[in-house]
Amino acid sequence: MVSKLLLSQLRTLPKPTHHRLINPNFIFPLKTPSPIHSRPYSDSPQPQPPSPPPPTNGNIPNKTKNIYSSLNKSELAKFSAISDTWWDAEGPFKPLHAMNPTRLAFIRSTLCRHFGKDPYYAKPFEGLKFVDVGCGGGILSEPLARMGATVTGIDAVEKNIKIARLHADLDPVTSPIEYLCTTAEKLVEEQRKFDAVLALEVIEHVADPAEFCKSLSALTVPSGATVISTINRSMRAYATAIVVAEYLLHWLPKGTHQWSSFLTPEELALILQRASISVQEMAGFVYDPLTEKWYISDDLSVNFIAYSTITNE
Ligand SMILES: C[S@@+](CC[C@H](N)C(=O)[O-])C[C@H]1O[C@@H](n2cnc3c(N)ncnc32)[C@H](O)[C@@H]1O
Ligand SMILES: [Mg+2]
């Protein structure tokens, strides 16, 4: 009976496919270092890299301006459909709520070290400007604001930004958060700069991770830091983050993640390096089903996070 139920759940499971970075149709300049935005950012005409490959998988083409767009329409539709559940700790974002204390511990420790702040102080990030790229309903932006940061939260889904705004306005400590429905590349065009740029669990949902990292780099001040988390493209991640989390335990809606969109830690480090970002520290997040808690670990095989700095070339 149980095995029949499991089989019926697994029948619709997609098989792992090639990652887009190794997909022959995906043009990734492996040999020649890609031209990177100049720093400081200038909107005067710059030598332009060759046009990106035509968007696939629902990516939104930007024909009018010929600028890169990180938007992947089908990925955004998934988040739009569940936007009203952001603050339901038992809903589809349960894993992010559960992971939040652990990832905030990593952020507090690495960024306090980076900015020479006291991690034991209640508001160590006072005086620093942070941008939370792909902020969703604000479950990371809010604790960052509580730790004293001046936070801008951006998301491409309008409904997410509305939820984030409503929730932040419930508390005077979080109400100063600036929430914008926009993209990292648009903020780059506006020449916005931040001390720390965070994009947690977003890169696996964007149209082109390498270009996305260049935008994150361009948003970071030269002495700043970036923090990126995602899921490793390992068989273990396929088994746990997709088969178990989506198909067996229903923590996330089926189809939330495409295994082929995951990056290995090495691939992430490589595309960050090409965006003038140098990884300083990586850590894994491991779930313990007995305590139902997430822990920081050296095991990068499923969920992992990277703290990086800007390289001054
Ligand atoms: C898994 S959620 C992560 C939310 C938040 N960073 C966190 O960890 O709590 C991914 C978010 O990224 C947003 N997103 C996806 N692609 C985006 C893009 N190209 N630009 C901005 N936001 C994007 C989605 O709308 C969604 O809210
Ligand atoms: Mg994700």
Automatic annotation (TrEMBL):
The keyword Metal-binding applies. One of its GO terms (biological process) is methylation. Its cofactor is Mg(2+). S-adenosyl-L-methionine binds at residues 103, 134, 155, 200. Pfam families: Methyltransf_23. It is found in: Mitochondrion inner membrane. Keywords: Magnesium, Membrane, Metal-binding, Methyltransferase, Mitochondrion, Mitochondrion inner membrane, S-adenosyl-L-methionine, Transferase, Ubiquinone biosynthesis. GO terms for cellular component: extrinsic component of mitochondrial inner membrane. InterPro entries: SAM-dependent_MTases_sf, UbiG_MeTrfase. Residues 46-56 have a biased composition (Pro residues). Component of a multi-subunit COQ enzyme complex. O-methyltransferase required for two non-consecutive steps during ubiquinone biosynthesis. Catalyzes the 2 O-methylation of 3,4-dihydroxy-5-(all-trans-polyprenyl)benzoic acid into 4-hydroxy-3-methoxy-5-(all-trans-polyprenyl)benzoic acid. Also catalyzes the last step of ubiquinone biosynthesis by mediating methylation of 3-demethylubiquinone into ubiquinone. Also able to mediate the methylation of 3-demethylubiquinol into ubiquinol. This is Ubiquinone biosynthesis O-methyltransferase, mitochondrial. It comes from Cinchona calisaya. The lineage of its organism: Eukaryota, Viridiplantae, Streptophyta, Embryophyta, Tracheophyta.
